[in-house]
Each structure stands twice: as C-alpha cells, then as structure tokens.
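Look at one record.

>
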Amino acid sequence: MDPWEVPAGARSISIEGYPLTYTEAGDGEPLLLIHGSLNDYRSWDAQVGAFQERYRTLAISLRHYYPEPWAGEGGEFSLSRHAADVIAFIRALKLSPVRLLGHSRGGAVAYMVARAAPELIRALVLAEPRGMEDLLPGEDAAVDGASSNRAIFDALHVALQSGGRVEAARAFIDAFNGPGSWAAMPARQQTIILDNIATGIDSGELPGMRCEDIARFTFPILLIRGEKSLRRYELGMEAMRRCNAAIEEVVVVPGAPHGMHRTNPEFFNSAVLDFLARN
C-alpha cells in the first residue's frame, strides 16, 4: 500500500522502495515527460492531451514531489537520485528505447539519464535544462548563471523559513519568468507550485555537463527555449550545439519565458511533435 493517497487518474509503481507516481495516456511508442523544480506530473497538462494522440505518454513526479506531502527533511533528494529513479522506471515499465523530454531541473535529470544509459534513449528533448553553465568556462554568463540560480533558491529558503509560502512562491516564479508571472499564473498552476514548495531545498547540485559526453550522444536531440528566457539558456544551448554538430537548430518559443510549455503550449507542442515525428 502507498504511504499517501494516489490521486484519481494517476498510477504508482515501487522504484527502489519508493512509490513513484505517474500518469499514462495514449498508445504507441513511449514518450516520458520529466517536470522541473516546484512542479510535478500535473505541469504537463497542456502537453499530455496533444502527445497522447501519437504516443504512449507518461508523466512522472520525481521523488518527494506531489503527491507526497514532503516537508523537506529526510530521504534522498538530488539530481543523481532522481536520474537513478528514472532509469529504474524506464526499465521497470520496459519503455526503452524511449523518447525523453525534460524541462529545467527535469532537463538536467533527462541529460543525466541519457549520459548514464544512452541505450535507453530513442530521442532527447531538453527544454532549458539546468546546468548548461558548466559548458561555458571562463565566461561571465556561466558565473552569473550559476550564482543567480543559487540566489533564487537561497531567497526561497529564507522566505519559507519566515512562513510566507505564497510570497516565497511569488518571488521564485517572478525571478525565473519575469515580474508579474505569479499573479498571471492560473490557479491550478499556483496550486502545483505550493504543493511542491518544500522541494525548494535544492542542494545546488549540477548535472555535470561535459562537451565530450554530449559529443558521444548518437540519438537525435532537440533543444528548445523561451524567447523571453534568461540569456544563460541561449548561451548554454549554443555551447551544446558546438559540442555535437548533429544537434538541430535551437527552437525558440515565441513570447515565452522559462515556463514555455505552459505559456505557449500550442507552439511548444507543435515543435516537439514535429521533431519526434522525424525521429
């Protein structure tokens, strides 16, 4: 029995002793979606409906995210742990070779999965993955990217300690997506962020992106970013393409900040589906 209630429409599978929650919809070849920080499987609402028409679409909640009512203490919480869980999940459900899509923190997890077990990957989609500053040694953008990311999470920690969950969430979302983003966010998405606010304990771990590893990737790769996203994402993706000439031109989602798949889902979905149809 799961230690917490599995929401209606979701499923649960034990992965190395942890009940991993996920949803599954559609038939065909598998497509696995990995969410970003302060999110969960529900963040892909606008994608699942479109993707399930062509693919067996699975969206997971990483360890300690909703529906677990985690308080931010106890248990493993790291990119490495999440990547190991995803690898075990793919193998347990016999999904390989899988099309893997990750956003932000989930993009870092997807990268680590692909690096550790490339045989599991059919195609890889990275939507502004965390950690690309590792590919920009010596450039101010790399330092600024790492330090600003750390500052955003540090500010979240301070706000949470003062007990202001909503204000903490507002500051975090506005820092990544621009002023006013929290206020403009639909109520359901605000609920998702607040349900996962304790996962903002982020340790600062990076995926350890290395050019030589990216150069060895032989599966198709799509890089996608928001037009209004922070400059470091653009620079990081340019660096990834320099590492591997087979990576297609970066797709830019018009008018979108970091949360591009929610802000402009029609363009995002179309771009991803076009890439996957060719790969």
